[in-house]
Amino acid sequence: MFFVGHMLVTRSILALVVLSGLLAAQQPSKITGTYTSMYFNEEGGDLLGQELKIVLTRRGYQGALQFAEGGPGGLIIVDVHINGNKISFTIPETAPEAGRFSGTLTNGVIRGIFSFKEGGEEKVELRRGKSYWD
Amino acid sequence: MCPGASHEDQRVWHGCTTPGRTEPVGGNDEGELRLRRVGRCVGKNILSQTTQLVYDGVNQAQEISGTTANRLTGLGIDEVFARTDSSGARHFLTDALASTLALLDPAGAFQTQYTYEPIGKVTVSGPSSGNPFQYTSRENDGTGLYYYRARYYSAEKGRFLSEDPLRFDGGNNFYVYVLNDPVDFTDPLGLKLCRIRLQGMGDAYIDDSIIPLVRNWIALNEAVPISVNFTEAFRLSAYQAALSSNPNVITPATPGSSLHEAGFAVDIAWSRIPKNLRPLVVSNAQRSGLNWGGEFKKPDPVHFYYDPGNRKQLIRDAQKEYTRGAQCRCSL
Question: What is the pTM of this model?
Answer without folding.
Answer: 0.61
